[in-house]
Each structure stands twice: as structure tokens, then as C-alpha cells.
Write a structure and sequence with these properties.
single chain, 257 residues, alpha/beta, Uracil-DNA Glycosylase, subunit E
Length: 257
Amino acid sequence: MAAWLSPCHNPAGLQSALERLRGAVVRCRACPRLVAHREAAAASPPRRYAGLSYWARPLPGFGDPRARLLLVGLAPAAHGGNRTGRMFTGDRSGDWLFDALHHAGFANRPTSRHRNDGLRLRGAYITAALRCAPPANKPTPQELARCEPYLLQELGLLDRVSVVVGLGRIGWQAYLRARRRLGAPPPPRAPRFAHGAVTTFGDGVALIASYHPSQQNTFTGKLTRPMLRRIFTTARRLLAQGRRVTPRDRRGGGGVR
């Protein structure tokens, strides 16, 4: 593992490293198409958000620095996180997600309205494959590749994570791709994306696939609230059954227990 991905065991050092990473994310302007889209969304908001100030910058991950549960989503919504400055905040996807997280004990409240609303994650951290809102929610492969180093750095810092939820196929694939980049142990068989499917890796990490709580999925009934809640009760059960993954495991020195 590269030195800049080495686990940070000092709490103050971990917090400082995450803050530096967040600063780098927020300053990023690597993808001209995404910069233009996020700023255009802020300049011409829908009527319900007229007059409100938009964040209109990339979004860093957030949550408990000592998290054992990691959520990897797709990207901020143009008038959700791109407006409020926090992932899954201020939109219907966030309403569904935080209801499920609160139900399973991973959040102190079931709603996420704005970045200073008092929401706290308990043992969980939320990030995404892409840090800016893409047009039509469809990032290009090049945009995903430019954003990937931020996810790699988060995975290196969040060294207690033992359960990962991939929210949507792109978030799920982003985590699998990041593991390969880091040289982490592969799964015993090829993983498949299906809602609720669990893949266990040789280092003890479990990956749960979930449909994304997008309006496309929730309005059509493809994803229901009980279905999403079950994802996080499964995560809670796996955490209770498992053990903390150690740096030695991540180097391939341990197996599944």
C-alpha cells in the first residue's frame, strides 16, 4: 500500500488527514463538463429553490472517522447535495436513506435537510464514486477515473471499515474497482449486482449491493422503504457477527472468520 494510503491510527491525525482530503475535494475543477453543470444548476434553480444559495462545489465524504460501515453512492444531486453542500441532503433520496440509517441505529435522526441540521452518523461514513452532479445522472468513464483517487484515499484512511454498502450499480462497481487498485484480496467468486446480495472478500470485508434510493427507483416501486431498511439491518447483523478488519488483513495476511 502506498504511503499516502497507510492507515492512520491516531484519532487527531485521522481527523486532520480527512480534513485535508475534504479540502482537496472541494477545490477540484478537474472535469470541465461537471464544473459547468454544477454551476449552471446553481445559476438557474427550479422555482422552489429560487433565491437560495447553492454550494455548487464538489462534495467530500462525511460521517464517523472511525466508521465500520461505508456507503458508496453515485454522485450528488444537482438540486440536492449540490445545493446543500452535503451528500444525500435536501432531496428525496436522502429522505429514504436516512430513514433507513436511523432505523438501523447508524444516524441520530431520520432526515437530512441541510449541512448544519445536527445530523450525526454513528459508526458510518458516506462517500460517492463522483463528487459533482453529472448531467442526467450519467458520469463518463473519464470523470469517474478522475474522481477515483479521492475514494482510494478515503479507503486508506477509514481502516476500520468491514461492511460496505454499494448504493446503485455505479457505487458498487466503484468500490470493487477501488479494491483492485489497492491490491486488496479478491472475492472467492465473481460478484454480481442484485439488491441485497452480499459479497465477502478474503480480508473479511463484506459488500452489500443495494438499489439506489433515486426517485426513478422509489417512485416505480423497484425500491421500497422496507427493502432499503433491510439493507442496513443486514449491515448491522454482519457487523455484530464479524470482527474488525486489521491492516494485516488488508495486506492479505488474514482470512474470513
